From TrEMBL:
Name assigned to this protein: Methylthioribose-1-phosphate isomerase
Isomerase keyword on record: yes
GO terms of biological process kind: L-methionine salvage from methylthioadenosine
Pfam entry (one): IF-2B
Active-site residues, Swiss-Prot/TrEMBL: 240 (proton donor)
Described function: Catalyzes the interconversion of methylthioribose-1-phosphate (MTR-1-P) into methylthioribulose-1-phosphate (MTRu-1-P).
Keywords per UniProt: Amino-acid biosynthesis, Initiation factor, Isomerase, Methionine biosynthesis, Protein biosynthesis
Source domain of life: Bacteria
Positions marked as site (Transition state stabilizer): 160
A molecular function (GO) term: translation initiation factor activity
Main EC class the enzyme belongs to: isomerase
EC assignment: 5.3.1.23
Amino acids binding substrate: 47-49, 90, 199, 250-251
Length: 350
């Protein structure tokens, strides 16, 4: 079990692990206002689709708490404004929009005073946090059924960080790896460094080190070589948004890893909660892809590493087509991408 919880409600405020400071510093940031939560999401103090969803849910409560009226209609109108500010933070991770819809729905459906609606919103945020932890553990448990019998111990490659830090705790892709490790079936994790923000080198590697899971960090351009040399038995990654047909958006570079895995006949799995599936989108072409500030590319620390006069392009995510995905591991079961539609919940918050 992991003890890394990136979003915690404590003493009437939210404590976030500042993921921009890891691995050199473990710092907690206190958030009491929804505008600060929006900023924390935008600047990636909290990141990873499910963790963003949990943080957003608390952000909605913090916003609700600040609304100073007893009038239900005025309250709901101002809550919509809070939702809009939170929606403007990061466009790709659908869990953010999922959490906002769920929080708004409960606010509209709660019969009672404004104070009672506020209490229900806090309870719902707490519930979303607890549910996500359980969901990740279920994903980990389900993954044990798809682990090939050979070799006895597997080397698993992952990209970015889909770990405890990216969820309520435990992780999706790294949750799978944790479960395989606990089952005694893991030889080693290969963690892609994950340019430009280095979530693999900084966060996945840090989580593995905390739990003494053997980890080798490679730069992104080494993955094909490792596969060719027979060092990788399986790939598992997380997702930020999965379309109804199984096309999956994840951290930039994931698509390349999937192409390489196909070339080398290595199983390529996506591990994600159903809250990451956007059934309203027919395919991955419709997934909005965030573009971030180019300084993430051209600057390392205080040093500018590119010459003057170049142009930049910094998409934060790419879409892996369903045909490259061996299976999607969810909290319910593992399905082929084309079977994802069979898991569509009756009540959807997308
Ligand atoms: O830009 P980030 O760090 O928020 O991107 C995170 C990822 O791409 C993760 O792989 C994804 O959110 C899945 S997290 C369980």
């Amino acid at each position: 079990m992991t003890t890394i919880y990136p979003v915690v409600w404590s003493n009437n405020k939210v404590l976030l692990i500042d993921q921009t400071c890891l691995p050199s510093q473990y710092t907690l940031v206190e958030i009491s206002r929804y505008e600060d939560m929006a900023k924390a999401i935008k600047t990636m103090i909290v990141r990873g689709a499910p963790a963003i969803g949990v943080a957003t849910a608390y952000g909605m409560y913090l916003g609700a708490r600040e609304i100073n009226t007893k009038e239900r209609e005025t309250f709901l109108k101002q809550l919509e404004e809070v939702a809009e500010i939170l929606r403007q933070t990061r466009p790709t991770a659908v869990n953010l929009f999922w959490a906002i819809s769920r929080m708004l729905k409960i606010a509209y459906e709660t019969i009672g005073t404004v104070e009672e609606i506020k209490n229900t919103l806090l309870e719902t945020a707490e519930k979303i946090n607890a549910e996500d932890l359980q969901t990740c553990q279920d994903i980990g448990k389900n993954s044990l059924q798809i682990i090939p019998p050979n070799p006895d111990k597997l080397s698993i490659l992952t990209h970015c960080n889909a770990g405890a830090l990216a969820t309520a705790g435990y992780g999706t892709a790294l949750g799978v790896i944790r479960s395989v490790w606990t089952a005694g079936r893991l030889k080693r994790v290969y963690a892609d460094e994950t340019r430009p923000r280095l979530q693999g080198a900084k966060l996945t590697a840090w989580e593995c080190v905390q739990e003494k899971i053997p980890v080798t960090v490679i730069s992104d351009n080494m993955a094909a070589h490792c596969m060719q040399k027979g060092l990788i038995d399986l790939v598992v990654v997380g997702a930020d948004r999965i379309a109804a047909n199984g096309d999956a958006a994840n951290k930039i570079g994931t698509y390349g890893v999937a192409v390489m895995a196909k070339m080398h006949n290595i199983p390529f799995y996506v591990a994600a909660p159903l809250s990451t599936v956007d059934y309203s989108l027919k395919n991955g072409d419709l997934i909005p892809i965030e573009e971030r500030d180019p300084s993430e590319l051209y600057q390392i620390g205080d040093s500018v590493i590119y010459p003057d006069g170049v142009d930049y392009y910094n998409p934060a995510f790419d879409v892996t087509p369903a045909k490259l995905i061996t299976g999607i591991i969810t909290e319910q079961k593992t399905v082929k991408p084309e079977e994802l539609i069979s898991l569509k919940p009756e009540l959807s918050y997308h």
